[in-house]
Amino acid sequence: MLSSRQVYANSWMTVREDAVRRPDGTNGIYGVIDKPTYALVIPRDGDRLRMVEQFRYPVGRRRWEFPAGTAPDRAEVDPAELAVQELREETGLVAGRMELIGRLEVAPGMSSQTGTVWLATELTEGPAQREHTEQDMRTAWFTAAEFEAMARSGAMPDSQSLAAYLLLQLHDRG
To answer: Rounded to two decimals, what is the model's pTM?
Structure first.
């Protein structure tokens, strides 16, 4: 990196442009989206998985995904604490057991954001505590077979949820 400048910032992310020198000596630029680490939670009760559905503005439609999020104002929060918060906030569930099962990179070609994937079990139901921006969110249980059918048909194209499900399968295999 030769230089870096922030070109945009809001409460959720910053965008920077880096001037770089490639290995062959030529110069170039990278546009990078910086966002804090997120936590994605897979709430599981037996064969059932809890998901949330909400409108995602960039793709212009509602979609199902596992509960996930970052801390407000681009804060970096302990990933275990963030997972507990996101689960309660989006679903109302409280986990008796929360286990880290993997880590993900969102889009390493354009973003520095990484995430942690948690398996939540021994669940207790309670009221959701959603942020104002999540007021249109719905939540429902799906069996693993229903999840896989949604993934196959394209009805659930969220790449983070699909990758997290693979981590869950690998976790279950030991």
So the answer is: 0.92
